[in-house]
Every structure is written in C-alpha cells, then in structure tokens.
Amino acid sequence: MYEDIVLGIAHEAVLTVLLVSAPILGAALLTGLLISILQATTQIQEMTLVFVPKIVVVLLVVLIFGPWMLNILVNFTHSLIAAIPQMVTI
C-alpha cells in the first residue's frame, strides 16, 4: 500500500523534472547542433567555441521560461504537501 504512494510520488516527480528541464535541454541541444554545423562548414576546430553561446542561450531560456518552471515546481510541491494528511491516515 505504501509502495503505491511512493511510486506515485516518484512518477510525478520524474514527470515534473522532465517537464521543467525540457526547455533548457532543448535549447542547449539546438544551440550545440547549430554551432557544430557552423564549425563543420567553416572547418573551425575550436573546442571551446560551443560553450559561450550555449551558456548565453541557456541563461536566456531560464529568464524566459523561469516563471513557468517555478510555477510547475510550486504546484508540484503544493500538491505534495496537501496530500500529506491522506498519506498519514492510510
């Protein structure tokens, strides 16, 4: 019985983490791909060229999607705390 509760919480936590991290990971992936294509076409072999654009893009994505990500995390935390009385009485 308690295993179902723990697995349910773990399932919701994993989905929340995937949902919150998707914009950041997608932007970093797309930026890395575009910089790699640029490096391949211009034959620039500088390994550190990818890091600065990725950092800038990830920072911009966090600034743009930050309130949405925070809202998702607050809703998850609120539902988790609100469910404590039902978990204790079982």
Secondary structure: elements and pairs:
Blueprint: H1 2-42, H2 51-82, H3 84-89
Helix pairs in contact: 1-2
Q: Which labels suit this protein?
A:
mainly alpha; 3 helices; 90 residues; 0% strand
**How many strands in all?**
0
Total helical segments: 3
What does the largest sheet look like? none
* Contiguous uncertain segments of 5+ residues: none
Strand content: under 5%
Integer average pLDDT: 91
Question: How many whole angstroms does the radius of gyration measure?
Answer: 20 Å
H-E order:
HHH
Give the termini distance in whole angstroms: 8 Å
Which structural category fits the helices and strands?
A: mainly alpha
Principal-axis shape equals: elongated
The portion of residues assigned to helices is: over 70%
Tally of individual domains: 1
Give a structural overview.
The chain has helices spanning 2-42, 51-82, 84-89. With 90 residues, the protein is mostly helical. It starts with a helix and ends with a helix. The model has no long low-confidence stretch (mean pLDDT 91).
